[in-house]
Amino acid sequence: MLFVILLAFVFSGANSSYIEYNTTQRIVPGKINVHLVPHSHDDVGWLKTVDQYYFGGNNSIRGACVQNVLDSVISSLLEDKNRRFIYVEMAFFQRWWRQQSNAKKIKVKELVDSGQLEFINGAMSMHDEATPHYIDLIDQTTLGHKFIKDEFGQIPRVGWQIDPFGHSAVQAYLLGAELGFDSLFFARIDYQDRAKRLKEKTLEVVWQGSKSLGSSSQIFTGIFPRHYDPPDGFTFEINDVSPPIQDDVLLFDYNVQERVNDFVAAALAQANVTRTNHIMWCMGTDFRYQYANSWFRQMDKFIHYVNQDGRINALYSSPSIYTDAKYAANEQWPLKTDDFFPYADKVNTYWTGYFTSRPAFKGYVRLLSAYYVAARQLEFFKGKSSSGPNTDALADALAIAQHHDAVSGTQRQHVAADYALRLSIGYLEAEKLVASSLAFLAESKSATGKGNGVTSFQQCPLLNISFCPPSEASLSNGKSLVVVMYNSLGWKREETVRIPVSTASIIVKDSEGREIESQLLPLSNSTSKIRSLYVKAYLGKTPRETVKYWLAFSVSVPPLGFSTYTVETAKQTGPSSAISTVHTYEGTKNDAIEVGQGSLKLLYSADEGKLTRYVNSRNMVTAFPEQSYGYYSGSDGSDKDPQASGAYIFRPNRTITVKSESQTKLTVVRGPLLDEVHQQLNSWISQVTRVYKEKEHAEVEFTIGPIPVDDGIGKEIFTQITTTMKTNKTFYTDSNGRDFIKRIRDFRTDWDLEVSQPIAGNYYPVNLGIYLQDNTTELSVLVDRSVGGSSLVDGQIELMLHRRCLHDDLKGVGEVLNETVCVPGGCEGLTIQGKFYLRIDHIGEGAKWRRTLGQEIYSPLLLAFSEQDGDDWMSSHVPTFSGIDPSYSLPNNIAIITVQELENGKVLLRLAHLYETGEDKDYSVMSSVELKKLFPNKKIKKVTEMSLSANQERAEMEKRRLAWKVEGSAAEEPKVVRGGPVDPDKLVVELAPMEIRTFLIDLDYLQMFSA
Ligand SMILES: [Zn+2]
Questions:
Q1: DSSP string of 810-843?
Q2: CA 185 to ligand 1 center in whole angstroms
Q3: What's the gap in Å between 60 CA and the centre of ligand 1?
Q4: Could you give the maximum distance between any two Cα atoms of the chain, in Å?
Q5: How far apart are CA 652 and CA 33, in angstroms?
Q6: Which SUPFAM superfamilies match (predicted)?
Q7: Phi, psi of 704 (to 5 degrees)
Q8: Would you give the DSSP letter of residue 293?
Q9: pLDDT value of position 2
Q10: Out of 95, 404, 660, 928, which residue is the most buried by the measure of CB atoms under 10 Å away?
């Protein structure tokens, strides 16, 4: 009986048969339009390596296979031409593309041409925004955009940084507007900021990231109301629990109207917090669409039934279509300036730990970033070879390393090892290229007029821990060491370099064969210690115990060029390198100890063993800074809020000052070129402070680790530099190494901050430096890699230098950040050696040092070693070289950030102004570069100005740019200045403050020395 009733019920409806869903819907004016944007967020490494994610390996960690995503999405798109999909991460798409048949490629190209498949963002990875350097961001975006242009002829229009943990000003103006993007979308902003924006309908803004470039570099920016996934109840991966639409009348659980109602309700809720009639739903999330039809089938039905219902309009869309709809609405948008750091998603959950997480990896990325800049220059000077070693593998590895779970330090340990391995493989190939280019350039004096590249050059990537076999080799039998120093900066530099040597009786000669002053310094205890352990860990062998000294000498190197120095055995009766005096102060005397041979003197108190005074006798700056170390014990999440400190999150629960375990000994090393102060703060923190005769800053090399955790407490180590400056809660930190942004403690510009984490909530990313100002003075600290920093007390700068955490912070990585180094016989906590640089200036005079030394820190001299028999090197080789006109140097406010030969023989050139408007009285001005002098001996046939990623002509990009309207008066803005067009005869490039200009240059006689 029951059976009969049921049957009757089922058959009482319409006939069940094939339903053709109408998915053709476009935008309908006057209705709420729900833009469904199908997407998959595919991390280029995180819990698994990039390759494991691609092919579906290691699925016990997570069932994720990007190959499945792309295969199934393409089939689904081919089934219905109204369906759309966006793809973002070119590192994955390239892997897939090269495996496809030509027939498949043709079909995919049609999907791209029709807009069904659209590349969004289009960089190799969705880069982190806190910890990368802007040059890396540009390079990895250029690489992805080039692939898209070469294969598909397409130019991405939209920035899609949906997952990074906070958003930088440089992302908005440089990696947004200057790429020609019309809009930028993301999910993660501070929870308090989001609450206010939801209330005020200000989630969509026009963002001006640069003070200097203002409205000329602004971008429409959309922040998602919640996250980058669909509203609850609309996720359709195979195992998802959202109810699918069941519209077959022959089956039970028919639910069309119910689901349509759900859809309309969710759309209206979002429309309530959004301006205009257009809302976007991100239909997807991490590694979704592994079976794409399970999503598309549901979206087909929703579009069909919701539009039949008619209350709102649903359509397949993309961020570009959405952007155009927003633009067409002709609305005025709120203005956003500065950035979106720091990011907190809950009251105790500040994502400020990752600014420092994995400091060794961050240092390695930075080191290779600059190496890549130098290697491309040398590759250009020699002529790019498609067969020989090149920089492509390094470019790829660096691009992947910028991912928001890579350089950020938030990946699993095995994935961190994979990124490092890729970098080292890329480095080894680039190292060969550098060696052969230097050989080619150094030999070009030979009879044939060009080098054969037979000279063998060695480089020393472990020089920082005093390991350098060629310089350690004993100089005997008339052999001497040849050191070629390459300078990738556009101006001449003079500095003191150091190499490890195994004998004291040596002299150093310059390119002209003149003996120059040099100084021998003892290795610090900590350097000797990490040298033996880390060489064994990295190379699997024990280094020879012959290194006795650092040999320091001052060098002068021309712009984009090299100088050659030789180290020889001293004659028995002749002069020899000066051995430093070493004096250890045990804290018994009451004297002040003075160090410094030049203008800058640092004074230490002998009984306390610490810095007490800073005196620059040239500019008459005197200050009384103190420096200390301490650590935060990380929250273990055992209180009522389970939030622990971890890879992402910084949540301190106690601050502990490191007090010396005994009276601190000071060891002072003195010599003609520099003085050093060695301090051992405790058994696992030490530092060497260096004052160079010719420089007016202090260089501090710290060695931290292994951080002890036997007490079961994770520790996050900081240093503080404390002065009496009255800084009124204000300090400045850079954005990706470029613009400086004003920070005010316990304050946000965009909302009234409720302070819950007074330490973690005041941390900001530092890539270049951090500084303080008061009425008379400025205190600047520059860094050698990205770290977290703050000013928690007026007059004080704090940097977090190392972290070792014992708890997972519940943000998905599922592993504790507890880095170790292992050799046969055991593992210990990772030790970090790094540097920061400190200087105090009169107010208004600090910028010159920050910008100039900042470039030198980013691009250290590249050292290559060879040896000579007798002393015929200088006569048989070119001892000095400059790739630009020898009479020329770039202005002090301009940097060459890219010189790269492309496969088509064209040269990619990028020039960057280093100063912001108003930053320096002399250098914040329009400046110019003479291209003819940059490319001597060549004829410049044509110069084309391009967008930042070089995928379109700048003029075309400007023509296409959408002119967004900003709320309030636009007339208040001072006129934005930019360099003018390049006259094809004069070939002079003007750059206004903070401008970066990108050119494609056609040259004749590209091979400099070809016959
Ligand atoms: Zn992600």
A1: SSS--S----EEEETTEEEEPPEEEEEEEEEEET
A2: 14
A3: 19
A4: 119
A5: 45
A6: Families 57/38 glycoside transferase middle domain, Galactose mutarotase-like, Glycoside hydrolase/deacetylase
A7: -130, 120
A8: H
A9: 47
A10: 404
Distance 295 CA to ligand 1 centre (A): 20
Which residues, in sequence order, are bridge partners of residue 730? 744
Q: From the CA of 33, how far away is ligand 1's center (Å)?
A: 28
Distance 998 CA to ligand 1 centre (A): 30
pLDDT at 790: 98
What is the Cα–Cα distance from 311 to 593, expressed in whole angstroms?
A: 81
C-alpha of residue 42 to centroid of ligand 1, in Å: 7
Nearest to 739 by CA among 417, 418, 341: 341
* CA 658 / ligand 1 centre spacing (Å): 37
Token digits for 96? 């897939």
Q: How far apart are CA 984 and CA 1003, in angstroms?
A: 13
Q: How far does the centroid of ligand 1 lie from the alpha carbon of residue 326, in Å?
A: 26
Tell me how far the alpha carbon of residue 162 lies from the centroid of ligand 1, in angstroms. Answer: 8
Q: What whole-number distance in Å separates Cα of residue 963 and Cα of residue 322?
A: 16
**pLDDT computed for residue 5 by the predictor:** 45
Distance from residue 803's CA to the centre of ligand 1 (Å): 22
Nearest one of 618, 494, 614 to 558, comparing CA atoms: 494
What pLDDT shows up at residue 590?
67
* Residue 261 confidence (pLDDT): 98
The interaxial angle of helices 359-382 and 846-858, nearest 10 deg, is 80
Q: pTM above the 0.85 mark?
A: yes
Which residue in the block uniquely carries the two structure tokens 């819990």? 47
| Residue 171 DSSP one-character state | H
Quote the ligand 1 centre to 183 CA distance (angstroms).
20
Distance, CA 642 to ligand 1 centroid (Å)? 23
Please tell me the predicted confidence (pLDDT) of residue 449. Answer: 52
* Separation of CA 814 and ligand 1 centre (Å): 14
Task: Estimate to the nearest angstrom the gap between the alpha carbon of 926 and the chain centroid.
Answer: 27
Token digits for 876? 């048989």
Cα of 189 vs centre of ligand 1, distance in Å, is 15
Query: Ligand 1 center to residue 64 CA distance, Å?
Result: 13
Query: What domains are defined for the chain?
Result: 33-121+156-345 (3.20.110.10), 359-445+454-579+858-882 (2.60.40.1180), 582-763+803-838 (2.70.98.30), 894-1005 (2.60.40.1360)
Q: What share of the chain is helix, strand, coil (3-state, %, to 5)?
A: 25, 30, 45
- d(CA 704, CA 830) in angstroms, rounded, equals 9
Tokens 């009276």 — which residue? 663
Low-confidence stretches of the chain (pLDDT < 50) are 1-13, 447, 1006-1011
Of 911, 958, 998, 899, the closest CA to residue 378 belongs to 899
> What residue ranges in 578-684 does DSSP mark as E strands?
578-579, 581-585, 592-595, 600-605, 610-616, 621-623, 626-634, 652-657, 666-670, 674-682
Q: Which of 389, 372, 363, 429 is nearest to 703 (CA)?
A: 363
Kindly report the CA angle at 935 between 933 and 941, in degrees rounded to 5? 110
Q: How far apart are CA 472 and CA 507, in angstroms?
A: 15
380-390 burial code (b ≥16 CB/10 A, e <16)? bbbbbeeeebb
Reported as half-sphere exposure (CB side, CA atoms, 13 A), residue 992 has a value of 14
Measured in Å, residue 179 CA sits from the centre of ligand 1 at: 22
Which residue shows structure tokens 């890699």? 785
Q: Measuring CA to CA, how many Å separate 452 from each of 428, 439, 443?
A: 21, 8, 7
Structure-token pair, residue 35: 């833009």
Quickly list H helices, 758-896: 846-858, 873-876
For 486, the token pair is 């390459």
What is the chain's Cα-based Rg?
30
Interatomic CA distance for residues 488 and 371, integer angstroms: 9
Sign of the Cα torsion 236, 238, 239, 244 reads positive
- Over the chain, what is the mean pLDDT? 94
pLDDT for 444 equals: 77
Q: What's residue 10's pLDDT?
A: 44
The DSSP bridge partners found for residue 900 are 908
